[in-house]
Structure formats: C-alpha cells, structure tokens
Amino acid sequence: MSEKTSYILHGPKDEYDIPKESLGKTIFNRLNNLNTEDVINIDAKTKTKVLRCGELLETSKKYCDLYKRMGVEKGDVISIVSENSVDYFVPVIAGFYMGIAVNPVNPAYSVGELQRCLLIAQPRLIFTSDSVLDTILRVKDEMKLKTPVLLINSASRTNPYVKCADDLLQENDIELKNFTPMEFDYTNQVALLLFSSGTTGLPKGVMLTHQNLRLAVGLCSHPKYGNVIPGDVNLIIPPFYHIYGSLIQLIGLITSTVSVIMDKFVPKLFFETIQEYKVSKLYAVPSLLLFLSQTPLIKDYNLSSITEIFVGGAPLSKELLMQIYKQQPSAVIKQLYGMTEVAGPCTIQNDKNKFNSVGCLGAGIMAKVINPETREPLGPNQVGEICFKGAALMKGYVPTQEFLDENGFYMSGDAGYYDNDGFFYIVDRYKELIKHKGFQVPPAELESIILTYPAVKDCGVVGIPNERAGEVPLAFVALKENTTCTEKEIVDFVAERISVQKRLYGGVRFVKEIPKNSNGKIMRRTLRELI
C-alpha cells in the first residue's frame, strides 16, 4: 500500500528544555542543582512524611549499590508491587541510573493476574509493601520463583523472614561522592515496563524507553502545553503502575516542582490537600471531574490555587466541561489524548484551544487516520482509525513484537479525525477495551474467567456507558443445557478472581447464544444492540 504523505501529520520540532540523555542523568543533575532541604514529595495523608532532595539523592545512590550486590545489572527488570508512597520512585530512579527497566505492577491484582505479569516481566528483584506481601509470597511459592522479595517503605515488617530494603541500604559500600549514572543509548534502553492490553487481548508489557518518557514529560511541561512553572504543586492521585501516575511524578522530578501524593482517592482529604498545599496542577480523569461537579463538599474549600486541569483517560462531555468551568473559572482545562504505548499523551490542547478537541500532536509523533477496511490514509475531517509512529512510540510489547502496520504505524483502535489545522477529535473506539475510571479492562480476560464457571457454555463481555465510571463491564452469558445459575453467582465468581477495577459492575444478561462472525470472533456490536 502506498502512503499519501500529505495525509500524514507531524508533531512540532523537538524544542523541549530537557537534555537528550537518560532520565537518570537528567534527574541526577537536576537534584544536584537543588538545595538538599528542597521538598520533592509530600504524603497527603500523614502530612509529616516528606521526601527531600538530599535524602532522595543519597538513597537512590545506595539503591544502585544494593542492585549490584544482588546481581541486578543493566538490561535487567525489577518489579514494584505497591501502593503509591513518597518513597516509591527512589528505587525507580536508581534503576534509571543503571539502565535497569522498572516494572510497576497493580498491587490490587489477584494471584492469577500477578502470576501472568511476573511471567511477562521476568524480574530479577521484587519490591513490595506490607499490604501486598502475603499475596506476593503466595505467588512466589506457586510459581516456584527464586526471585528475592524486599519490603519497600515498611514500618511494621509483618513477616520476619522478608528483608526490608531500608536495612540493606545501610550496608552499602558505594563511594557516594564520586557516583555518576551509567552512560547508555537513551533512545533504545527501556526505562519502564508497564502493562497494557493494547487494542485487544490480555495484558502485555509495554517497553517504554528513556526517550519515550523524555518526550512525554517535555510535552506535558512545555509552556505552550502543560505550562509547568517554578513553584507549581502537583497532586498525584493516579497510581504509579499507571502511565498517568508515573508521568506526573517524572514531571515533578524533572521540572523541580513539588508533588503531593495520595495512595487512594478520599474526597475530604482530596479537598484538604488542594487547599493546604495550594495545588496548582490537577491531573484528572472525567470521573473525578464528575465528582467535582456533583459533590456539595466543594463549597467548603478554597480551590482557587488550581491554574490548570488536565483531563485524559476517557472522553469528556461538553456538559461536564462547562460545569467545571463554572466552578473553577480561573483554571484552564486542557484535554489530552494518549495511551501507555506512547508514554502518555499523543496530543494535548495548546494555547490555541479548540472546544471539544484533544489538541495537537507532540514532538516525536507522526499520525494518520485510516479507513479501517481499506487501510488507506484519510484527509481532514474524515473519521477513521488513528495511527501513530515516531520517536515517542514504545520500543515494543513483551512478549510479542507484532504491533505495527506495514508502514510502521501503531494502530490505536480509536476512531477520530483531525481538522484542517491539525487538531484531533476522538469520536468512538474500534478497539474492544472497556475504559473503567481510566483503567483498561480487556473483555477477553473477563471472558476467560467466566468460561471456567461450570454452568457457562459461552460468553461475551462489552462495556456499557456509566455516568460515574465512563464504562462498566457487562457479561452476556449462554448457559449449558439443563443447567442453571444466577447473575449474582457469576458476578461473585468473577469478583473473587479479578482486581476491583475489572469486576462486572454492569451485571450479567443471559442469552441463548453469543453472536459470532464466520471467523469465530464475538460480534460485540450486536451484543451492544441487545442492551
């Protein structure tokens, strides 16, 4: 197929004020230019737990020595299975120093989900917290893993046989004064290994390089787009195992701004934190904005410090957008569109916003919109599947490398178009993923669990609209002959085997047959028409 080059859009020239080098080197140099008492992270819940520049710098160096002593080297993977904390990113930064890929994992995952993730990542070392330790040890035992497990940021040490990273860090023999991050090819070296379901199927490991993340941070902090300035305070609500949470933390580290971290969303604490620390940058998903538009709590707090609200993860309705503008007239709301595979944002609204647009391409990104049937590129204002290419695109998936079309473009599965000025608009999704509160829920994963229920003959899962969550999973179930079961039985069966974000909040509907095409593929559009 020949490409119509006039129908391929290019992002702007890379003029980001971030050195073209490894993230480790950039962060190391930025930390060295700060005062040792400068605050990096604050725990929103305790308010007393604070990470300062000097502590971060010295502890991250010690982690490098710990990695060496444990045989973890450049190119290896370490996994972190923990809730958000002010210290979470300290071992991550040390990994960046050494060219080690860091694999943040959802601590709410079930045993089966964790086993699948660890089989993909193959970590040489696993960090976890007290709240997840028992699950991790069960996974390790069932998989017969010899991978060491260390407690990170542990106060109670619930298991006396598991070592705490803090204790081992005190045994370091590294020469801290002469330490410098390793030199390596930042364009090719994997920095983060995150999990995404891509457009279909079960979770895959997304290999994001130092270059991918540099471009994402550059786009989100550039004056024309994210407009991060000295003195800004970021509020981190998204979990670090999600690209959104990791990216916000990296923005704070590289721009030398303060990040206040929540380990989970608590409404009253959320408002108190914004008011007390004068949060200026709020990174949100539509479900959070919906909460803001409806809760009476908002009248009890001063949120005037917020200058920008960035919204991603799901489409934002016009009605909700206008409601937030009424509540926060001094804040600029910027929609962005992205995915894990490009380290976050592909597009973001700039200083020439167009209503309902998700903005323009960032540096290092090329895009086209194609006819999903003929694969031919489409011109402006024609709806098709959005595809991406360029330096911002991931290195690839683990375990598969099959993710590009014949011209090297990643097919997003999202339906949209661009206008004559290069502004993008998202109108629908071709892909099968369900977006629940910004989280990706693959129907195939839920179907594989439901099909193990003894009475189930076949099933198909789709997402249905939900005002608070964006979408919730609904299962269509066909039962075997002469068998019976209730909706609750199947809902409970799935809930016991899956993390909380993926449960069947849309319920179960019983049908005689699951509609499929000649290739045996579930016809999800037909299922949605039954709703």
From TrEMBL:
InterPro entries: AMP-bd_C (IPR025110), AMP-bd_C_sf (IPR045851), AMP-binding_CS (IPR020845), AMP-dep_synth/lig_dom (IPR000873)
SUPFAM superfamilies membership: Acetyl-CoA synthetase-like (SSF56801)
Enzyme class per UniProt: oxidoreductase
Keywords per UniProt: ATP-binding, Luminescence, Magnesium, Metal-binding, Monooxygenase, Nucleotide-binding, Oxidoreductase, Peroxisome, Photoprotein
Cofactor(s), by name: Mg(2+)
This enzyme's EC code(s): 1.13.12.7
Stretches that traverse the bilayer: none
One Pfam short name: AMP-binding
Start and end residues of each AMP-dependent synthetase/ligase domain: 53-397
GO BP field: bioluminescence
Protein location: Peroxisome
All residue ranges annotated as the AMP-binding enzyme C-terminal domain in the record: 445-521
Single GO MF annotation: metal ion binding
Reaction catalyzed: firefly D-luciferin + ATP + O2 = firefly oxyluciferin + hnu + AMP + CO2 + diphosphate
GO cellular component: peroxisome
CDD domains for this protein: Firefly_Luc_like (cd05911)
Major location category of this protein: other
Family: Belongs to the ATP-dependent AMP-binding enzyme family.
Designated name of the protein: Luciferin 4-monooxygenase
Organism for this UniProt entry: Ignelater luminosus (Cucubano)
